[in-house]
Specification:
The protein is mainly alpha-helical. It is built from 21 helices and five strands. The radius of gyration is 25 Å and the shape is globular.
């Protein structure tokens, strides 16, 4: 039986987890959903960076640095292949699940040493098709798990060491360079350590220094190359909070109803039946606070989507595994496990085929534009990403919220010079200008304006200019 199989403390059980994960996700590979907005943005950003431009100084985006550079590496390795990206995402989910199970075993967080949490972690990460996206959240969650391991070690008094706190802060700092809103985890961890350990001022400063260190290295590197102002404006100053959700709260609740229900059951069961050591009780409380901390980060950051809530997966897998292991009747425990896994997979596939009206994925996909050119180097002065489905980006004006200032404040000499340098490096074949800002730019740069012919809101590069 499935539960009995995973209760055995044998690392080879992870091979079964991997096979089951492939079986669960196989339908998403056989009949893929299609290109999501998150994936298209990542591809376009990678193509822009791989054209030889410098992040922030020449590629104007609010994307965190590690997320942006990873997008460039992904585009270099995989191009626009969705299948390759999804395979890597699947492997990463498995590695995270395996690491989380070993983390619990090594820290003796549960009464039994079992690989059930690995299986549950992977199942939770399949509650929606878009968790197979190679997203910054998926990458950052790996670092968050490393940080969680060091947090457990710090709580265990006999293992307290300065390098544990330094690494804990460092992993969280790196995670915030994938997803900036993960800075929320720093004050949360300080609160947890204050509650469960004797946190001195020196140790708190050590944790903060570990967190700040990757940011200091980034600032020094950009200062050395004279691009510090671009880094500050694009990355730190443009951090966005409470951004519009891609999936409504109601849709998320319907999609995650089974994990939520099992989590509630687990809280009741643990309160009544659990017989834990003092250390295990502390870890249980920490995992509950970690779940609340992840929920706070999701709330303040916005952009609600299934792949955004992956930081909840460790806590859910931990509590639900506890719940199932505490069920005394073996047949009932087995049934609960099958219902959990089968229910999540069923909801995921039913929602994927739009059979649940309450779950609306429409905002997660690219909004198609009426007419688009094909196979052109294109500059879009707006957030209409549909133009890039069949075209390549030109110039580094990737994020319109960042670039808007340069195109609307042409009275400033720096803005005109920056635009001129971008066009000298790479002339777009097509400019989509729904906000009618290029007319002012061409007044400042008349030689550039002669290279284009206007048709409505669109400018086309003259054939004579292309031949030069």
């Amino acid at each position: 039986m499935l539960l009995r199989f995973f209760r055995i403390n044998d690392p080879y059980r992870l091979l079964a987890v991997f096979i089951l994960l492939i079986v669960i996700a196989l339908g998403f590979f056989i009949d893929p959903v299609g290109l999501t907005l998150t994936e298209l943005k990542s591809m376009v950003l990678g193509e822009t960076l791989n054209s030889g431009k410098t992040l922030y100084a020449q590629v104007h985006t609010a994307a965190p640095p590690l997320a942006a550079w990873f997008a460039g590496w992904s585009e270099w390795f995989f191009g626009r292949s969705l299948t390759a990206r999804h395979v890597v995402a699947l492997l990463l989910i498995f590695v995270q699940g395996a690491y989380f199970a070993m983390l619990l075993i090594n820290n003796k967080a549960q009464s039994e040493s079992t690989y059930l949490p690995a299986f549950l972690y992977c199942v939770v990460c399949c509650f929606s098709f878009d968790l197979l996206t190679l997203s910054p959240e998926l990458l950052a969650s790996s670092l968050v798990l490393l940080a969680l391991n060091n947090l457990f070690k710090e709580v265990e008094f006999r293992v307290q060491r300065d390098d544990t706190l330094l690494k804990l802060g460092f992993y969280l700092g790196l995670a915030s360079q994938f997803v900036f809103s993960y800075v929320v985890f720093l004050p949360g961890v300080l609160i947890i350590l204050t509650i469960f350990t004797r946190l001195s001022l020196r140790k708190a400063l050590l944790l903060v220094f570990g967190f700040v260190l990757p940011h200091l290295l980034l600032l020094v590197a950009y200062y050395f190359f004279g691009n510090l102002s671009f880094l500050w404006r694009c990355y730190y100053e443009s951090a966005r909070w409470f951004v519009e959700n891609q999936l409504s709260l109601a849709s998320m609740l319907y999609l995650s109803a089974i994990p939520i229900l099992y989590f509630i059951f687990s809280l009741v069961m643990l309160n009544r039946e659990a017989h834990l050591t003092k250390y295990q009780s502390q870890l249980l409380q920490i995992m509950f606070l970690w779940l609340l901390l992840a929920a706070v980060e999701i709330t303040v950051a916005g952009r609600m989507a299934p792949h955004r809530v992956i930081t909840l997966a460790p806590s859910l897998a931990y509590f639900i595994s506890h719940f199932i292991l505490l069920v005394r009747r073996k047949w009932l425990a087995e049934l609960m496990l099958w219902l959990f896994a089968g229910g999540i997979v069923t909801v995921a596939y039913v929602a994927r085929y739009n059979q649940v009206k309450k779950i609306d994925y429409s905002k997660m996909f690219v909004s198609h534009v009426p007419t688009t050119p094909v196979n052109k180097r294109i500059l879009v002065l707006d957030e209409q990403w549909g133009y890039f489905e069949n075209n390549k980006p030109a110039t580094g004006f990737y994020d319109w919220e960042i670039a808007r200032q340069y195109f609307t404040e042409t009275d400033y000499f720096q803005s005109v010079v920056l635009i001129n340098n971008a066009f000298e490096q790479e002339l777009p074949e097509v400019i989509v200008d729904p906000h009618r800002v290029m007319a002012t730019v061409f007044k400042r740069l008349p030689a550039l304006g002669k290279s284009y012919t206007q048709q409505g809101d669109t400018y086309y590069l003259n054939a004579s200019t292309q031949l030069r």
